[in-house]
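Take a specimen:
=====
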Amino acid sequence: MKKTAYLLTAMTLLLSSLSAFAQNNQQSSANASDGDKATTEESKIDTVNISFGETTILIISNENGSDTVNVLDIDIDDDKHAQDHAWAGIDGFQFGAIGLFTKTGNRAFADRPDLALNTTRCSMLGFTPFGKEAEIIKDRLRLAAGLGFQFESYAFDKNVRLTDVPYLQGVEDTVRDYRKNTLNANYVTLPVVLQFNTKRNLEKSFHIAVGAIAGYRISSNMTYKWSEEGRRQRERLRNDYALEPYRLSAIAQVGIGDAMIWAQYDLTMKFTATDTSSAVVGVKGTPEVYAWSAGINIPFGEY
């Protein structure tokens, strides 16, 4: 009797297990069928994307054979615009080469060996810590102004001492052998430039700036360095050396992203020229020359 009860109980449990297994298989098959059906329906819809810069054309082919065309304009957010301020390029450090030319574009002091320059040792260093811009066309055109300083150094080729009495001239020094004899002119500057930017994206933008720089000479000196009895000597003499107190220059800058080069040409004479039309024959006057400079600019960053 007990064996019969055990047998009936085992058969009941087996039938229950088979029934549950069958129901699970049936539900899984139904889910798979629904998924295949959805996939089949989704596969009937095709999309094509065509991009032109910041514009995207989305073409959707429906299952009924019709097409839907959507045109999307993707604009750069305000945070992306904000970083474009760095392309202004008026702030930063400037360093490069400098030289002097005549009004006709010839090399200065060609007929004055006493004032001949060693152009490989002439240099200009500047920095503009303060700058402000006004946007004319958003992210494209700006007017910028700043306040900075420029330091010019002109190295002489001959072993001369410079004097401006009664005119600018170099007097040969037969006592000392100079390692360095340079005329240094230092200016406070006010640059004003108009800037054009080609792209909103700073990393890909090509920008141009043109304008003028006004300058006022705040100091000038001649620096002499030589050796005497094995000891290095140095002398600095402050004077204006016939340098004009005011200066006006044209400037142009071009660059991509943060990389920038610049060129500057003085519109005013470097020295106060002597009127040689009535001078005694053989007397040298202060020549009429103009300064130029060119180099690279390393911006401070956004302002």
